[in-house]
Amino acid sequence: MTTIDRTRLKERLAQEEKLFVEKHPRSRELFERAKSSLLGGVPMNWMVRWAGKYPVFVKEASGAHFADVDGNDYVDLCLGDTGAMTGHAPEATVNALVEQTRRGITLMLPTENAIWVGEELARRFGLPYWQIAMTATDANRFAIRLARHITGRNLILAFNYCYHGTVDETFVTLNDGVAGPRQGNLGPAVNPATTTKVIEFNDIAALESALAPGDVACVLAEPAMTNIGIIHPDPGYHDTLREITRRTGTLLIIDETHTICSGPGGYTKAYGLEPDMLTIGKPIAGGIPAAAYGMSAEVAERVRAQTSVDDADTGGIGGTLSGNALALAAMRATLQNVLTEEAFARMIPLGERFADGVESVIREKKLPWIVKRLGCRAEYWFRETPPRNGGEAAAAVDVELDRFMHLFALNRGILMTPFHNMALMSPSTTEEDVDYHTKVFRESVEALIG
Hints:
The protein is an alpha/beta fold. It has helices at residues 6-23, 25-34, 91-103, 112-125, 136-151, 204-211, 237-247, 266-271, 297-305, 312-315, 325-337, 341-364, 390-395, 399-411, 431-449; strands spanning 58-62, 65-68, 73-76, 129-133, 155-159, 172-175, 178-181, 196-199, 216-221, 251-255, 277-280, 291-295, 370-374, 377-381, 414-415, 422-424. The strands form four sheets. The chain has a seven-stranded mixed beta sheet with strand order 4-12-11-10-9-5-8, with helices on both faces. A four-stranded mixed beta sheet has the order 1-2-3-15. A three-stranded antiparallel beta sheet has the order 13-14-16, with helices on one face. The longest helix is centred in the last third of the chain and has 24 residues, at 341-364. The radius of gyration is 22 Å and the shape is globular.
């Protein structure tokens, strides 16, 4: 197997940093200006976590491409970390937004679009009752609160290095087998180990042990892990997860916010899962903030039986902008016209094409790397074997090599998802876009090993 010369890696990374600065002078000017009014020079903190010395400032975006303020064009394989999985500014969604804006944006009253969206979500995911939120983080928070309310239990269970937005209870990891705040968990109200049991994904014995006492309200799970890299469930894992949760009276919440990449009904529809509740956000409104959480008929009845109408203002769960008319118009247009069966029939083969292209370079260059794919999402790893859980995946992170690969691609007009080497296909992504990535990926490898 070919090994990476770390001295050469440092030299090449320094060259790419210099090239980045040369190609992005206007972005640098804007970043320096932004520091005087925006904390860290960005409107949201993690925007500083890109591979360059400062973030690229965007001028405009359309479909699977965007242009920066320096006139550089990019193939966007990040797509807002799934928020723009529809492609940027999809025409049907834009038209619906323009029309609804003229008719009213937020009313704190339902619109007919809300009924259409609820019926469509029920059709896609198999859960009959739905509520609307602003973000998937909110949807997860609200689902957890309802689970605690109707079970009378205080704890939840999450998986090591899981991803559920900024839900406080899920910023928790295992360190030497002991649960504690995840690194970077700023100002937690309480140590999340007091609210959350944490186990490794795919560990059935740990799952059985954690749920056996009957004190866990819900398991919150991505059906396949995605934010520490793509980690697939072992064969039969979901059947066992469902059996144990039912036996112990624990609700099962499936978070499809990233795994919607599996198909129009997410991983749940594609693999026949039967959750008690389901959460989803990011792409379902074409980039407009919107999310939803659904529940089974049994859960809905328990909620109705234990929730008074008089408490709807506090017990209704959600801010005054949740379920607003604009978001629901965007959700209807996106689900009806953009994230369709036909779109996924194009996107998933493009994900396969991406994975095949990267794998061909890895084989040719005899690298100890692998590629994982989930629907129209694909990712490469700097390790020989697929990790089975978050702990194994976190141990494989190579920050310096990650940064080089990202920056090399960025300097040649390709944006990958930050923090890991993930690419996502949109309805607007083309074979030419994917093949260009394969070409640049080959060049990046050859820059390291010759």
